[in-house]
Amino acid sequence: MSNELPGHGGSNLPAEEPIPNPGLPEHTWRPTDIDEAAEKRAERQIAAMYLLSMVCVVLFVITYFVADVGDNWNTILGLGASTVGLGVFLGLALLLIGAGTIQWARKLMSDVEMVEMRHPARSSDEDREATLAALSAGGEDSGIARRPLVRNTLLASLGLLGAPAVVLLRDLGPTPSQAAEADYPGAGLEKTVWTPGMRVVRDVVGTPIKASDLEIGDLVNAEPEAIFPTEENGYPELHGAELLIAKSKAAVIVVRMEPESIIPGENRDNWSVDGIVCYSKICTHVGCPISLYERTTHHVLCPCHQSTFDLADSGRVVFGPAGRHLPQLPLAVDEEGYLVAQSDFTEPVGPTYWERDHKDIGDQGEADL
Amino acid sequence: MSIDTSKVATSNSSAATAKKPGKAGAVANWADERLGLGTAMKKNLRKVFPDHWSFMLGEIALWSFVVLLLTGVFLTLWYHPSMAEVVYEGSYDPLRGVLMSDAMASTVHISFDVRGGLLMRQMHHWAAMIFIASMMVHLLRVYFTGAYRKPRELNWVIGSLLLLLGTLEGFTGYSLPDDLLSGTGVRAADGFMKSMPVVGSYMSFFLFGGEFPGEQIIPRLYTVHVLLIPGILLALIGAHMLLLVYHKHTQWPGPGRTEENVVGFPMLPVYAAKAGGFFFIVFGVTALMGGLLGINPIWKYGPYDPTKVTAGSQPDWYMGWPDGALRIMPGWEFHFFGYSFALNVFLPIIVLPGLMFTILLLLPFLESWITGDKREHHLLERPRNAPTRTALMVSLMTFYGLMWAAGGNDLIAIKLNLSINQITYFMRVAVFVGPAIAFWITRRWCISLQRHDQEKLLHGYETGVILRSPEGGYTERHLPISESAAYTLTARDRDEVYSPDAETDASGVDAPGGRLNGLRAKLSELWFADNVQKPTAEELEEARHHAEHEHELTASLDGHAADGHQFDGHHAVEGETLRGS
Amino acid sequence: MRILNLTAGRLSRHRRGPIAGALLLLLGLVTAGGLYTAVMTPASAERTQDLASQVEEGRKLFLVGCSTCHGTNGEGITTDRGNNLGPSLVGVGAAAVDFQVGTGRMPMAQPGAQAPRKDVAYSEEETAALAAFVASLGPGPAIPDESDYSIEGLDSAAQEAAIVRGGQLFLTNCTACHNFEGSGGAMPRGGYAPKIRGVEPKYIYEALLTGPQTMPTFSNGNLTPDEKRDIIAYLGSLDDAAAIGGFTMGGLGPVAEGLFAWVVGIGALVGFAVWIAAHTTRSNKKKVEA
């Protein structure tokens, strides 16, 4: 049997292999091949695994009906009995079938090595010729080569069929400008539900916040009043998508710090109230909500990608992959002492998008960043 | 010498005798009369597959895919792919009365109120992680052994696509419960889309059916997850298996194995049993993990709310490396003419994965271009015998691994008491320096292993028996390795550096692709640099002769060979004594 | 006396049981120890002290153990270079001291980014004295009593509602730093939000109130006492809840899950693959052809 490698042609390397192929080693037998007792033992072992698997299936079925779920889960060692029981018994049932079958293959099925010859991946020359002949006969018959008008118009018509496929997808969603025209509050990328005079309320409970409620070092996770409509404030009920869309842009964090620590941004002298500042809770990187506030440094960290913003300095980025400062909500107090927004955010909230700076939305209040 | 090709496996039971057709025969006859199964199955029933544990890694992926299909169908029977707002009234008390999407409510229902529901959910999730992990391990095996060379480049391409689709399938899948953790990931995906120049916001609005989060994203992800991607996956897996059967599996070189044959065991019964058994084992291990190890407790995250987040917000492990790239990227955002270009998001999450995936796809073609090797290869190469190939993948793995670690930087910080800021700064440098160092170390390591092999081949193995000559010098006894071991070491190709034909021909016309040819030749030279080639027949003869001579010199005076080598672990020691007889 | 009597003569070995010696020794030790405890324990710690003497005792303890960093009057110390050795304690209130000292965070073993929780250095009454002293420096949050942070007194429907609301408050205010299981999380520059599971409810209340280290405060004007109580009730429910899905692997989320998938899942399956393809036992004998 030659061991020459095919397709070597043209090289000037020695073709002689240093060591010839010694051929398949002599087969050594297994105890189960030569000893009846070992063979029977292996058979019994495999059968035992299959039997044990069946036992596990029975235990699975029993567990299914016996272990309680729902209001009052049965537990075993503090773990859910149903999940653990079903999982362990199913797992063992399957594993034992697998292990038994593997042992059958390893111990009882013949392990004498067999040899099969490969074939080259390419088809034979005759096959190639026959195929080429068939292709050219068929092609000639169709006349596609010598009828350019028919051929080209076919290709063009097939190609144009791409258009319906693409066009049909147009109504997947509105364009950003169309969305801005929608009739739910705060529609569009540039607006939120915040309006001038809208109270800032605590998230979850919905209670309005008096400036005097807060102490230095406090962090309040807050929302606009519109998210918590009551008879008193008269805002319309928000549900489902509209509620989530509103929250995803309007959520804010309110912190109180020493008034002297605040470095007011350009034209932002009156945006804070007694050291209380309010910023968008939505990170300008890719939109995760942030509220990891460090009381002593006034930095707020985003848990997703560790962008860090300085709330004492107009939300400037001090670390991390965010490229833009956190939008600030201008605060004021109403006659009863509750914190209110002076207006909506003066810039779009959330992640950057291509046309973000393009629209003129009034005084951006950009700090010197 | 000839290799006996007539060996047929003997069974342990009595020889098969022709039976009169029983029930099974009648059914087979019925089928064959319509389907011609006899012809189709004739070649494949006893098809030979080689045996090695590393050939079973792809099977882990295959069988976990089957587990995913089975458990997935179960879950679809209870899951509601809808973002309609519902009030939760199920049995998990801490969420009673809370507003959530129907998708979340149905998933909590599956977890708490459907017997076996949580087990199936957890099995599905573990199987998904194992599916992708095993594809990666399989990819690495195929790469390091050179099994992706001709004729298997297309299978490599199909496999890479399977890996990509598997990753997307996983992402869409774990986003379906619409819980806080996966919803945060979907929010980030919205940010990624928005960062794309020109079309970003349009893509975001089309995907979500309007502003984030809208009501369309979960049902759309559901369609992708249970219909589109599984369909493509099934087709690609079918193509992958078909090619494997057509090309036959590669095998390790060794006695009796050549480029022209396959040595191993037949499909029926051995591989059917081993592969079938392995299916049950994969299924069983997944079930055990699903029952014992809790994963993704969505009821503790609560429903997705764009104002809530958890520390330790990471995607599932297979998306960890782009997350890491995102975390260590500096905040480069550019504003010009009223437009914003978020390079800080676009580069790590759109450009980089695209680039990495393209490199992955092109690896076989890159290697064949550099080496100029157009031969078919069915014998595997040990990683050490292709140092540059091995080092290239190790450096890619290092890049991947460092990015992956960067994705877990906050957890590394709390577990190892480090500062996340320092970890980020370190990673910004390490992802460039690390792969370079890894490349260099791996390459030199492979070459030194080759040198060791060469030593063994030419001078024999070290017995550990130290001899002292009468003059006082110490030597170690070497003994020749067995013939089959020696053959295995030489069963590799000699490397041929690609050399293009002359740059210009006689008439002064440049060779086509001339400039690129120069680069190609240079790269080829570097690819094979310092590789230890196997010895020629004369070199081997000479070395063996020299060894024998040395052997005689170190024999003891009374003619016996110096004792001790029998006990060096390479020989059977029955009947041997230390002092000789 | 030989403890186990094994080396005694055959006769004496049968007179006593083999472990008689050991038992007797054990009995002696227990008796002696018990007598000692009963007789020598100092008088009960419930000495009624009036406030002034408690403050004075606190001041003495403070001077010894706290003033090096916090100043003799708790005013805080900043070095010439501007490094803060210890912040001012004026106005932090008794609650802050009870938390810091009661969890062992203070006194800090060494300066660092964060004071980790460690063994408690002061007894309960010493802690109370320190708290009284610091409270006397300036008005601040007081130590809560149990009704502030426990839902025991409520009926079962109200308890359930408290846990639900507490969960929503927890997810809004706490999980960003402390993670959904209360397993903790990373903060900038080596700081961290610690694990808050298995912590006494009183300490959680105090931490919310006083904002230890860099934690923000959740004063009663921010989160009302009822809201704080609800959060604590929710955390308690997490502790009480069975892990219905199996072992939780630390409650750290996808990173830990990925680790297990690789180590346990792939590890086990590759192990099985190695077993499947491994050579079985070989015999030296030849097969006798039938």
Question: What's the short version?
Answer:
The complex is a heterotrimer of chains A (369), B (581) and C (290). Chain A has 369 residues and is of the alpha+beta class.
Give a structural overview.
- The complex is a heterotrimer of chains A (369), B (581) and C (290).
- Mean pLDDT of chain A is 90; it is low at 1-14 and 360-369.
- Chain A folds into two domains: 31-108, no CATH class; 184-369, 3-layer Sandwich (Rieske Iron-sulfur Protein).
- Chain A is built from eight helices and 13 strands.
- With 369 residues, chain A is α+β, with helices and mostly antiparallel strands.
- Helices cover 57% and strands 6% of the residues of chain B.
- In chain B, the strands form four sheets. Chain B has a two-stranded antiparallel sheet. Chain B has a two-stranded antiparallel sheet with strand order 2-3.
- In chain B, helix 4 packs across helix 5 (117-144) and helix 5 (117-144) packs across helix 10.
- The radius of gyration of chain B is 30 Å and the shape is globular.
- In chain B, 45% of the residues are buried.
- Mean pLDDT of chain B is 90; it is low at 10-15.
- In chain C, the strands form two sheets. Chain C has a two-stranded antiparallel sheet with strand order 1-2. Chain C has a two-stranded antiparallel sheet with strand order 3-4.
- In chain C, strand 3 and strand 4 form a beta hairpin.
- The termini of chain C are far apart.
- The chains are: A alpha+beta (369), B mainly alpha (581), C mainly alpha (290).
- Chains in contact: A-B, A-C, B-C.
- At the A-B interface, strand 2, helix 3, strand 3 and helix 8 of A face helix 5, helix 7, helix 8, strand 4 and helix 10 of B.
- Strand 3 (114-117) of chain A pairs antiparallel with strand 4 of chain B, so a sheet runs across the interface.
